[in-house]
């Protein structure tokens, strides 16, 4: 794995990809300084600018291709995930007590979300029509 940002950029790597490598090097150097005492002072490693939010949706063709490649036992779970936009853990941990089919919504508890805030998830027709097993 190369850590030179200039070389990685020339190879076509995104700033986010480069930053993941730089963050690893920075963490190792900080540990060498603070825990192991190998360095007097860890060098400052600046990360490259990244957009604050990454928004990307699968196209219908990409979603269909994904569903075709999945094993049968995961297909319905992925259909629900695509219909709701929920994270894998939220779909797997979802309980019937959190689903309101009459009002077509699901509730994800605060302790189950990344942001630690409860969220209401609207259930569209695709999500509601997925068979339960």
Automatic annotation (TrEMBL):
InterPro entries linked: DNA_brk_join_enz (IPR011010), Integrase-like_cat_sf (IPR013762), Integrase_catalytic (IPR002104)
Q: Which Gene3D superfamilies match?
A: Intergrase catalytic core
Record keywords: DNA recombination
Q: Does the keyword Amino-acid biosynthesis apply?
A: no
* Annotated PROSITE patterns: TYR_RECOMBINASE (PS51898)
- What is the protein name for this chain? Site-specific recombinase XerD
Q: Which domain of life is it from?
A: Bacteria
Tyr recombinase domain residues are 53-133
Species per Swiss-Prot/TrEMBL record: Thiorhodovibrio winogradskyi
């Amino acid at each position: 794995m190369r850590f030179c940002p200039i070389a990685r950029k020339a190879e076509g790597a995104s700033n986010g990809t480069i930053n993941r490598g730089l963050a690893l090097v920075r963490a190792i150097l900080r540990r060498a300084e603070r825990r192991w005492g190998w360095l007097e002072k860890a060098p400052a490693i600046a990360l490259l600018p990244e957009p604050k939010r990454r928004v990307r949706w699968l196209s219908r063709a990409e979603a269909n291709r994904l569903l075709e490649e999945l094993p049968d036992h995961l297909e319905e779970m992925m259909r629900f995930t695509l219909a709701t936009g929920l994270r894998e853990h939220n779909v797997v941990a979802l309980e019937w007590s959190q689903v309101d089919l009459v009002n077509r919504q699901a509730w994800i508890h605060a302790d189950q979300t990344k942001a630690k805030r409860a969220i209401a998830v609207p259930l569209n027709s695709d999500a509601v029509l997925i068979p339960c097993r």
